[in-house]
């Protein structure tokens, strides 16, 4: 109070003692209220346990995650019933979404953010025996937490995503021991938010080792696709005694699907994927409800991985796909207005076949729109991806061949095969003009 009085007197002319005391008291009260408001603005998140039931608590209230991985279209996520997004790297927190930093935009919409801090992986050249590199990473983690720990939209710290390596068995103990150190740093800087690490599926020694060597980890995140509905049972059976979150799920991965004789994975239609998303959400949250704190569906956006449509819940042009509708129904019990179109059947003369170059072909689709909107059809011939990324690494978009589409875009198509031998796909995108779309594709070989 003495310092405050001196500062106040230096900035203002002398006033009667009683008035001075009133003004100082008012200033102190203001600062006190400001401090209280600041504390209230910070999110206090903890994992509570009642009997054998784990529950995430945000500012004293239960919070079950209805989340997605991705940082775009946040207003649409809110409107469809989602309440959280997950990121992979700390740089995402400052990226602009609708003209504002991600955390600020999320707060405006009432969304919470699981903030990923990317931890380097050995497959990318990181050496866990390099003391200087390890210390540098620790310093980066500490600074990241200091920077964002007080933001009210912060839900959970995600320290590492598949740090053990997406194709490893998780047996390298150096990784788990260092993850525990990093989680401890997060806890030192921020006692108000739980710490999670995310593993690639639940095979190998991952769960055994994170259980044994990572006591600072509060929540286990699991990325799983074809086997996602069994994640809760698996982590419990393998000895995990804390809560878990299904941090990525969606359609079966390209590595899990049947393939053609030339190695092209068969991609489900968007409508088939929607059914998979819904079933996984229902099974995981009901089958492992005592330890499951929620889920993050993958991917709330667009991505080239295996194909341009395998994982994204939106088109590159912005239209919503049936997977997003399915998640909205799972979260709210209601379908969104203007639901996406549905493909009833797709037939082509090239499906999973080897055909000659430059030959005429046909395709036909039967589709409907639940809202009765007229449909627009877009067909394209695209080269098979020649880059097989690992762990979600970026892939180049393969070239398209518009010269092959000879007929007007409609539900029936005439086209020719490319002149150059190789593996290709015929893609179909159907839009309803109301922000909804659906997709399908078939692989074929030109030889």
Question: Can you characterise this structure?
Answer:
The protein has 447 residues and is of the alpha/beta class. The chain has 3 domains: 2-31; 45-332, TIM Barrel, CATH 3.20.20; 342-446, Immunoglobulin-like (Sandwich), CATH 2.60.40. It has 10 helices and 20 strands. The protein has helices spanning 2-11, 17-41, 74-79, 102-109, 131-148, 173-189, 206-213, 231-237, 270-287, 322-332, and strands spanning 45-50, 53-58, 61-62, 65-69, 84-86, 96-97, 100-101, 112-117, 154-161, 195-200, 219-223, 244-248, 292-298, 342-348, 354-355, 360-368, 376-383, 412-416, 422-431, 437-446. The strands form 5 sheets. The chain has an 8-stranded parallel beta barrel with strand order 4-5-8-9-10-11-12-13, surrounded by 5 helices. A 4-stranded mixed β-sheet has the order 15-20-19-17, with no helix packed on it. A 3-stranded antiparallel β-sheet has the order 1-2-3, with no helix packed on it. Strand 2 (53-58) and strand 3 (61-62) form a beta hairpin. Helix 9 packs parallel to helix 10. The termini are far apart. Mean pLDDT is 91; it is low at 1-40.
Q: What order do the helices and strands come in, and which of them pair?
A:
Layout: H1 2-11, H2 17-41, E1 45-50, E2 53-58, E3 61-62, E4 65-69, H3 74-79, E5 84-86, E6 96-97, E7 100-101, H4 102-109, E8 112-117, H5 131-148, E9 154-161, H6 173-189, E10 195-200, H7 206-213, E11 219-223, H8 231-237, E12 244-248, H9 270-287, E13 292-298, H10 322-332, E14 342-348, E15 354-355, E16 360-368, E17 376-383, E18 412-416, E19 422-431, E20 437-446
Parallel strand pairs: 4-5, 4-13, 5-8, 8-9, 9-10, 10-11, 11-12, 12-13, 15-20
Antiparallel strand pairs: 1-2, 2-3, 6-7, 14-16, 16-18, 17-19, 19-20
Helix pairs in contact: 5-6, 9-10
């Amino acid at each position: 109070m003495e310092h405050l009085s001196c500062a106040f007197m230096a900035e203002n002319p002398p006033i009667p003692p009683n008035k001075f005391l009133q003004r100082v008291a008012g200033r102190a009260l203001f600062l006190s209220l400001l401090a209280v408001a600041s504390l209230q603005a910070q999110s206090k998140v903890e994992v509570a346990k009642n009997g054998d039931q784990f529950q995430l608590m945000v500012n004293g209230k239960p919070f079950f995650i209805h989340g997605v991985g991705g940082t775009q279209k946040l207003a649409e996520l809110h409107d469809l019933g989602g309440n959280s997004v997950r990121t992979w790297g700390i740089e995402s927190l400052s990226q602009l979404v609708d003209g504002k930093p991600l955390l600020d935009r999320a707060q405006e919409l009432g969304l919470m953010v699981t903030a990923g801090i990317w931890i380097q992986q050995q497959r990318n050249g990181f050496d866990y025996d390099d003391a200087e590199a390890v210390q540098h990473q620790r310093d980066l983690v500490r600074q990241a937490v200091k920077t964002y720990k007080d933001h009210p939209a912060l839900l959970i710290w995600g320290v590492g995503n598949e740090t053990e390596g997406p194709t490893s068995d998780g047996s390298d103990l150096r990784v788990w021991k260092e993850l525990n150190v990093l989680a401890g740093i997060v806890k030192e800087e921020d006692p108000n938010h739980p710490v999670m690490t995310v593993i690639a599926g639940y095979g190998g020694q991952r769960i055994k080792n994170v259980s044994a060597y990572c006591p600072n980890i509060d929540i286990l995140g699991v990325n799983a696709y074809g086997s996602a509905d069994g994640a809760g049972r698996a982590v419990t059976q393998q000895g995990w005694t804390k809560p878990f979150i299904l941090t990525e799920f969606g359609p079966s991965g390209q590595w899990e699907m049947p393939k053609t004789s030339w190695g092209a994975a068969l991609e489900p239609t968007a409508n088939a994927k929607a059914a998979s998303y819904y079933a996984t959400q229902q099974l995981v949250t009901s089958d492992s409800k005592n330890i499951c704190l929620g889920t993050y569906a993958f991917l709330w956006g667009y991505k080239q991985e295996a194909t341009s449509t395998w994982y994204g819940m939106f088109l590159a042009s912005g239209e919503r796909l049936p997977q997003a509708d399915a998640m909205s129904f799972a979260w709210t019990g209601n379908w969104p207005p203007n639901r996406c179109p549905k493909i009833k059947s797709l037939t082509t003369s090239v499906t999973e076949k080897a055909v000659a170059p430059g030959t005429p072909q046909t395709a036909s689709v039967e589709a409907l729109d639940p809202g009765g909107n007229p449909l627009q059809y877009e067909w394209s011939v695209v080269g098979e991806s020649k880059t097989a990324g690992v762990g979600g690494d970026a892939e180049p978009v393969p070239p398209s061949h518009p010269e092959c589409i000879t007929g007007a875009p409609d539900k029936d198509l005439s086209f020719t095969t490319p002149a150059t031998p190789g593996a290709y796909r015929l893609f179909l995108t159907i839009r309803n003009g109301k922000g909804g779309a659906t997709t399908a594709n078939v692989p074929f070989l030109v030889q």
